[in-house]
């Protein structure tokens, strides 16, 4: 019994001692500042030249382009072009066997020549009134029919030879001598690349701000750090009923033939004059029911940096950046990463090794 009472007393003593120790430690923590610092990344609010612009992803196409095919079937006899070469308008590219058609052409041409000679004699006889008008008209009709047959056969022979309908660059030839081709089967692509067009779409609310002649800058992941300058050539006169977007076409000079049909890139369309504006990474701004918020790092002397919540008025966006119209001053140190774990007065520990994207013209990356 005595042992049990001693054990209970010891337990109660330990419990009381633990609570006293806990209170002492909590008091020390509160006296030392309490809340532990939060690790964040900081960046200054910078004043930059800001030109209002619209962003869109577009696809390039050639000024002229076609996948060429034969209108008639046949066996390939000659490949007359080097893949990837620049060709002139009318240059022969690929030929089919035309021996039978050429022989028939000679037959039709001979018949037409005979009919022409017959018509000449009939005209002389008609003028001498030795044949009737009906005989002369029959000779004339026979000549026209045979001449038309020869012309038709000549057109058929021409269809056995694939020629360039315009000057440009040919691609890979998808056949070889001896192969049989059906009509309509693609043989080679031909693209005119001295100029290329960019097709992109904008919301209908922006339709009133877009007009031909406006500058368009194009960034492609194929050419990192480089932009291509073009201009709006056409704004489609109707809005797509399904997406409520309007199609815009821009034209780009392509003297080096580096821009290729099918490439996609980020288009930036200038829609206003240049102004000065404070900029931040979009990731630095958080939104709540009361507005847009950023956290500014304020020095508290010996206490170090602490977070101060600031409401800001945002403007337009460009790439990864957002314009700040009100609430900040140039040079303010703004939290760009780690803001979600902050409140007013939170101590800050700065680690700028990881910063959010802050590119005004990011380039889309292929998946």
Strand content: 35-45%
Helix content: 10-25%
Average of the residue pLDDT scores = 89
The assigned structural class equals: alpha+beta
Span between termini: 78 Å
Shape: elongated
Identify the strand order in the major beta sheet: 2-15-19-18-17-16
Number of helices: 3
Low-pLDDT runs of 5+ residues are none
How many structural domains does the protein architecture include? 3
The largest pleated sheet is described as:
6 strands, antiparallel
Total strands: the figure is 21
N-to-C series of helices and strands: HEEEEEEHHEEEEEEEEEEEEEEE
Computed CA radius of gyration, to the nearest angstrom:
40 Å
At a glance:
The protein has 367 residues and is α+β, with helices and mostly antiparallel strands. The chain has helices at 2-31, 99-127, 133-158; strands at 38-44, 46-50, 53-69, 74-79, 86-87, 92-96, 161-163, 168-170, 180-181, 186-203, 215-219, 227-239, 245-253, 264-270, 275-281, 286-288, 291-299, 305-318, 321-326, 333-337, 348-350.
